[in-house]
Amino acid sequence: MFMTIYLVALAFFLLYKFWTSNYSYWKDRDIPHIPPVFPFGSSRDLALQRGFQGDIWSELYRKCSSQPFFGVHIMRTPFLVMRDPEMIRFVLASSFFNFRDRQPFKRSREPLTHHLFNLEGEQWRALRTKLTATFTSGKLRGMFPLFLSCSESLDSILQTNVNKVIDVKDITARFSTDIIGSCAFGMDMDSISNPNSEFRKIGIEIFKLKNSTRIKLALVNTFPDIMKLFSPRFTPKSVEKFILRAVSGTIEHRLRYGIKRKDFIDLLMILKYMNGDKKKSDDIPKLNLNDMTMEMMAAQCFVFFTAGFETSGSVQSCCLYELALNQNIQNRVQKEIDHMTEHYGGLTYEAVHKMVFLDMVIAETMRKYPTLPSLTRFSTERTVLPSGHVIDKGVRVLIPVWALHRDPLLFPEPEKFDPERFSDGNMALIKPFSYLPFGEGPRMCIGKRFGLLQTKMGLITVLKKYRVEPTSKTEIPLDFSPKCILITATEGPIHLRLVERTDHCPS
């Protein structure tokens, strides 16, 4: 009996010593930090995911308000948190090469993870250079009829819900699913009229955080070197099979019948089968496009889907929520929509592009509700910070976007919804690298233009004919879910009343 107790105590002692062996990491390097406490590290709530991640990081951010950066431990893993926009510029831009990767190891077992977001080094650079062509103004103009078609489907559903309380979170997510499906997969998802469509289910499945996933994420953060050996799976097999089948089926069909739709899959096919632009540049690394397998093509479509499915829908729903609470701002947006559609003879690409105040409203929505509450980078080289502090190779760096966007020193009255922050006259007052809805630097979101167009089309479709108003069921303020660790998502529905406009100017 005594021996059993002794062995258990010894095992616990050894675990404790191992677990806390690097708890002096930041102290040894003379870096300001929040002291870790066994076993959760610097924040029990963060380790146990008890609360919305944006709020938790904001609390830690405020604790170190006098520091340009500070260290924390999540469980036993050290993270360096950047507070000062100049330090953020150093990580995302000026020393980009040393912080170019987002994760500590590749998940090679999962074909759908071999996409632009996860690729590293020269392979990332080459593919990024090629895929950038997808999101030029010319390419988006070519896709615009696909956006219009999805907008018409959305309008038909809105017509059946006039003077009713609707969940704008659900409706905008279904609209976003159809846009992505049409532009990335060349398929009619019909999610707007059919909430139970297969693509809608797949989108929900991707962001569902199961307990098993929580455990794997905790293990990866706590034992990254050991977990490299196991390469745990995060993408459900059902999702992987569905995406691979959808992409391969679409490509085979287009090759057989010579179909072109001016969408994302068309570009991937050009890259693989026609080798794209024959012109080469010495400073652009060559990507062996003949080695771009069907799995790699599917991976690019997969990240297109995941990046746009929840994020754009979230921005649209939060924007409609704020417009419902700020009727004067909603009136101004609607006047601009009416004016531009009348001026350009309908809802054209040019009309949408010229809606400047709508751009300001969306920018303020993404300031108050950034879709990614934080950005992470992984140091690939030993780096000396401008302060003289040394960052070792392999250290995780975190940028608390939610906290930055709600810092009153950077954005006065941060809880106030004020689109005028983003007027031409006021934009110069925003400190560079303090506003990061799409990230910054060479790895900023490649689909920024696409996402903004998608968001504008959803909002215009609602606001050109209808008003949104709060109801007794509208939760004020919004409550954000702790279950979504990667993105900003409300805990429940966003209920608003849809009212037909009496001042609508038909186009």
Summary keywords:
507 residues, alpha+beta, 9 strands, globular, oxidoreductase activity, acting on paired donors, with incorporation or reduction of molecular oxygen, membrane, Cytochrome P450, iron
In summary, what is this structure?
This protein is α+β, with helices and mostly antiparallel strands. It has helices at residues 2-19, 25-28, 44-48, 53-63, 85-94, 121-131, 137-159, 168-185, 198-206, 211-222, 224-230, 237-257, 264-274, 294-325, 327-343, 349-353, 356-368, 401-405, 424-427, 448-463, and strands at 69-74, 77-82, 164-167, 375-378, 383-384, 390-391, 396-399, 466-469, 495-500.
Report on this structure.
The chain is α+β, with helices and mostly antiparallel strands. It is built from 20 helices and nine strands. The strands form three sheets. Strands 1-2-7-4 form a four-stranded mixed sheet. A three-stranded antiparallel sheet has the order 3-9-8. A two-stranded antiparallel ribbon has the order 5-6. The longest helix has 32 residues.
Would you list the SSEs in sequence order as H and E? Answer: HHHHEEHHHEHHHHHHHHHHEEEEHHHEE
Low-confidence stretches: 276-289
| Structural class by SSE content | alpha+beta
Tell how many strands the DSSP assignment holds: 9
What integer value in Å does the Rg equal?
Answer: 24 Å
Largest sheet: 4 strands, mixed
Protein name: Cytochrome P450
Main location: endoplasmic reticulum
Membrane topology: Peripheral membrane protein
Family: Belongs to the cytochrome P450 family.
